Amino acid sequence: MSGLTLYNYDLDENCYKVRVALSMFGLDYKTVVVNAFPGKEHLTPRFLAMNPAGSLPILEDGDLTLFGSEAILAHLAASRDEARTWLPAGGADFARVMQWLTFSAGELSVAVAARAHALLDAPGDEAALRAGARKALRVMDDHMTARGFAGADWFATGGPTLADIALFPAFALSRDFGVDHDEYPALRRWARRFRTLPGFLTMPGIPDYH
After folding, report:
1. Where is the GST N-terminal domain (predicted)?
2. Is the full-model pTM beyond 0.85?
């Protein structure tokens, strides 16, 4: 199978999702470092030709070029995980994983924007971004509280899936934009479990204590 190339900026949490998946799947890949900040290299013609949206990460898999972290996660699971444990092949479990991938790319994206505003001076209203992030994290914490009462440890199925990989960074990095983890006890417990998974990687800003 053709080799994988990840266009990566280390402090980008969407890039981090993909790095975690690649590590947990045990996949070898080449990294191309992109000077996203302060250089804004991802907005140059070279990178806009690969991703007109002007965002990272970008993954090359042979002749296939993908952008959008959730799409990349789904591709890696579908093409590299023969057991289909990370993205079930169909049925209710597939739908549940996709539900949370959609949430990650949609409602939870405000947390990514809040962190970018706090750390990289990206545009936005600080109070509104933080409030939106808190709302999304509350949805997640309420869900995992209910899952805990049902004896379940993970977001979508009986084991870790792409849903957990996609959702972890926004919570783990929330202190970067002023949201403390103590507000979300069910997510703290879930994050502790996630950190023990084989192949887990950390990044700057993710605390060890969870």
Report:
1. 2-84
2. yes
